[in-house]
Amino acid sequence: MLRTRHSAVIYYDVTKMAEARQKSGLTRVSSRLREELGDAVREVIWAKESFVFADKPARKVEFQKQDWLLTVELFSAAERPGFAVWMERRECRTAAMFYDAIPLRFPHVTWPQSVQRHPGHMKMLADFDRVFAISRASQADLTGFWSWQGVMPRAQVALIEFGADFDGSPRVTASPSTKTNARPQLLCVGIVEPRKNQGFLLEACEALWRDGLDFELHLVGRVNPHFGKPLEKRFKQTQQRESRFHFHAVASDATLRKLYREARAVCLPTQAEGCGLPLLEALWHGVPCVASDLPVLREIADAGGCLMATVDDLADWQIKLRAVLTDAAQCARLQTEAMTRALPRWADTAAALLTVLN
Predict the structure, then answer these.
(1) Residues of the chain below pLDDT 70
(2) Is 281:253 a contact under the CB 8 Å cutoff?
(3) How confident is the model at residue 4, as a pLDDT?
(4) What is the model's pLDDT at position 117?
(5) Most buried residue, 15, 19, 29, 145, by CB count within 10 Å?
(6) The predicted structure's pLDDT at residue 304
(7) Average pLDDT, the chain
């Protein structure tokens, strides 16, 4: 990347992504956005008291005032010693992404480290030049937190839409002519933990099985090592006695694409989300969704392809699941909406960021 006299360089923070071993939601966001930003950015890593280039050998970045440091990572000043001092020096302009306030709203089911880190992280964001919130709900949480804390933000906050094309595969715009599964299938994708509510979904499905409905439920997601073990044990026990239940702690992109292709509907029984990325990804695959009736999910769902069910209401979830499993006309309508409605792409996300940062 050549610099002209007045050109700005955008430096992209990959400190955590470079070391990530798990495909968490945050690392997927970081990697997909990085792919779409292409040659418009340079990768950098925080190293003790400064940023260095990610390529080897590591060299300290010499920022110019007109440059940008863009980070989509989640961290506190304590996790990056010296970062607060770097921010005070104002070597360049700074931009960050804000996901959600879930650690503050659900501390009892959030990693203790995240609960401890999050207030400081949210305060630190006020000192950036630009902050991109991933939904109207997350934007309200962030600005509300600043007001509550008496923080006078330097940051200008704007909305940014995530892309639905999570794995780069083409969008599904036509119903598969045939499906190999004999039974209709429900699919739920997400890290296994209490907030995601997979145990509640299993309870709803078990009630429908007892009522005589014949379908399969597939749960896909790595297990939260702090909160997910009891759920993992329950899922493994259920698999032993119920052949129509399938738990996939690990699934390749190819396996996940096949599950989407075979699914009658994707279920999102979550109690809280930052934007509802699994909802977008299901719609990209042309699959109708049954989702918790949360304001943040309404931001996506109201454009079509989704049935909303009351959070933690077992009776309402059974009604909505029964509908997608037995009402062919309604399911076809939802599928058509899913395949034809407008959906954002990660290329759009990258273009929106570059519009602001160039």
Answers:
(1) 1-6, 18, 20-24, 176-181
(2) no
(3) 52
(4) 92
(5) 29
(6) 97
(7) 93
Give the DSSP H or E segment for 187. strand 185-189
The DSSP H or E segment spanning 11 is strand 10-13
Per the CB < 8 A criterion, the answer to whether 335 and 288 are in contact is yes
What is the predicted pLDDT for the residue at 58?
82
Q: What b/e readout covers 118-144, taking b as 16+ CB neighbours within 10 angstroms? A: beebbbbbbbbbbbbbbbebbbebbbe
pTM: predicted TM-score of the whole model, two decimal places: 0.92
Whole-Å CA distances, 274 to 110, 120, 142, 334:
14, 18, 11, 24
Token pair, residue 342, equals: 């407008």
Q: What is the spatial distance between Cα 107 and Cα 91, in angstroms, rounded to a whole number? A: 35
Residues 208 and 242 sit within 8 Å (Cβ to Cβ): no
Tokens standing for residue 223: 């297990």
Task: Give the DSSP per-residue string, 90-138.
Answer: T-SEEEEEE---HHHH-GGGS-HHHHHHHHHHHHHHTTSSEEEESSHHH
